[in-house]
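Subject: for your reference before the review

Hello V.,

The reviewers asked for a structural picture of the protein, and I figured it would be easier to keep everything in one thread rather than splitting it across files. Below is the amino acid sequence we used in the manuscript, unchanged from the supplementary table.
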Amino acid sequence: MEPAKIIEGKKWQWAGKIAVTAIFLYLANRSIRGSDLTQVWSKVTFFPVVLTLAFSIAGFLLQARRWQIILAHDSFPSGYRIALKTVLWGNTLAFITPGRVGEFLRGLEVDTHRKGDSVIAVIVEKAYIVGTTALIGLLCFAGNIFIVQKTPRVNEVVLLCMIILLALFVAAVFWKRDIVKEKHAFMKYIARAWKMFPRLYTFAGQRALLYSLLIHGILILQTALLFRMFGSTDMLVNYLAAGQAYAFMIFIPFSIANIGIREYSFALFLSSGAIAETLEGPVSSISLGASMMILGANIFFPAFVGLIWELVDSRGRGRDGEGRKTTRRRDDATTRRH
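And here is what came back from the structure prediction:
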């Protein structure tokens, strides 16, 4: 299916995402007053902002390395420059297409003869992201139960055990090679993605997993530092809350750039149990401040860089094309004279 048709078919999702974004923005920020917004702005300081941008840059450099590993594993052109540019360009496409579908089209120009495989490669990378986010979220949930609360509740321990068993089952599925059977047309596409997935027992799979853990660890540390800047001083508590919040967000990916849902998730886990006792400001303002900084550093900033990079490359390709046309005309004229 052509990208234009995919985008056309997704337009109804765009309206739905706008509605969901507005709902969660209201739920997360309905208690914020003008004085709270002033307090949020007053807590912004130079060093944490610079550190936030540095973490953002480091995260995207590592994301490009993970994407490069997946491209190389599936025999795509896999230079680091190609990987970095397409990762950044994917962020730009996510803003100009309904439902962030453009992010899945970022690799179309990597190999124009394998456009379908390039989309599947992005899905493969997303599987690593979701798996890593869920795993670290599970560990943070366990840390919150046994370290922060100190007196674990029975229902939470039971829930933790059930999640661990489910995680072990999923890990076993991803470890096994030929579990997907191509009995139906739809399953052929699933099998195609399955064959492109770097297994965890391979070197490529282990490297992709390692980079995924590093990337998500940087994101959580970045968020924990922002929580600290806006009034939550216990870094361990901040880290555990951020890890749980990001794991929660993968189950509700319905808003634009997670706006609204991010604030709601941050507030949900910052205000739970013993965590709330460590806060030095309103949980709503801490959540809003951290979320806006994450939005700017990790979403707007790379999207802007990706757009500028693509525009510069497009102009360069245009000049090269004109140069080739001029040379061709000169060669034709020379041939005619002789």
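For the response letter, the relevant points are probably these. Confidence is low (pLDDT under 50) at residues 323-338. Residues 283-337 form the longest helix (55 residues).

Happy to draft the paragraph if you're swamped.

O.
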